[in-house]
Amino acid sequence: YLITPRFAEEGDLVEVRQQEGGAVFVLQQGDKRLHGTVTGWRVVLIEPNIGVGLWDRVALREEAHELAASRQENRPFEWDRVGENARIVLRDLTRAGEQYLKALGEKA
Known about the structure:
The chain has two helices and five strands. The chain is of the alpha+beta class. The protein has a three-stranded antiparallel beta sheet with strand order 2-3-4, with helices on one face. The two termini are 23 Å apart.
């Protein structure tokens, strides 16, 4: 799914800035830019299967890379290096989810 904001103002979304209070959405109206006021959210299905079945392939590849690196560097195998990419993606999804829930709470 892709979650996109709906704005009170007209304009094209051109930038999202992270600030202490949360995200600031910048809209372009002709030659002028302004902060957009989120009035709701639109959820768009972009693909029913986002490649979850590929995660085990990524883990196997990371395991093989770590095995080769540990042998080449003559050091113990580090299991923490396996799954690094998945943790990055999951961390980003978690942050986005927290911001989404916060934005919903502000609109309630």
